Each structure stands twice: as structure tokens, then as C-alpha cells.
Sequence to fold (138 residues):
Amino acid sequence: MQEPNWEVLRVPLSWSVEVFFVFRDGKHIRTWETHDKFAGLQASRRIAWAYHYGDITTRDSSGLVIQGPADGPVDVRIDTCTSGPHLHYQAQQPHYPPTRIAGLDLTQLGALKFVKAIFRHRSSGKDLQRVLGFKLLP
Ligand SMILES: [Zn+2]
Fold:
């Protein structure tokens, strides 16, 4: 059997996507991105995102993991909410701006690279800073 050849005729230019990876040890990864159209072009760009790894805190009525509370536990999260890209590490506060992060450009890290780094952290036991390639500056 051969898969049909799907051809998209009208590509969506605005969309959001949320993906969860749920682990049996009570941790999860949540990635969320929203993309929107460039004015005047038939092209889109990522305009807001959140890549989160930490304890599972919240499930819906059918048992599916959903986004936890804003003050919930976090191992690491990179997001753009409330301001420009910033990082949370081992706690909700502080928000580390790019000026306090060495070795990682928060605007260049995509969901796939984040997910791969978390899997590498989980399988190797290597520190999150090491697998994501950043150091926090004073
Ligand atoms: Zn944040």
C-alpha cells in the first residue's frame, strides 16, 4: 500500500501548536508556539512561544496533562510571555533575560532542539544547563 500524496493548496499563515511529552516519572515537556503572517508576504514567523520542562501538576477531567499554573514548579522554561524571550531555571523567579544567559540565543532555540536536549538530559543525567548549552550570569 502506498500513502496518498497530499498537496496543500492553501497553506495556513497563522496557527498555534501545543505538544506534550508525558513521562512516567511525573515530568512533562510542553511546547507551545504561535505563528503569524508577515504583513504583505505569503510567509509566516514564530511570534510567541513557550518550551517548558518540569513536574506534572495539572490534568483535565479525562486525565490528559494540561498547562500548569503560572506559579507551578519548573525545571526549565524558555518563553516570551509578558516580555521578550527569557528563561526560568529551577524556579519561576527570576526571569533570566538574554543579558544574563551565556551560550544560548533564546531566539534561535526551536521546539525540536529543546525537546532533544531534554531527552538527552533524561537519558544521560547531564545537567540541563549543559544539554541546553547555557550558563547563567550574575
Ligand atoms: Zn516566562
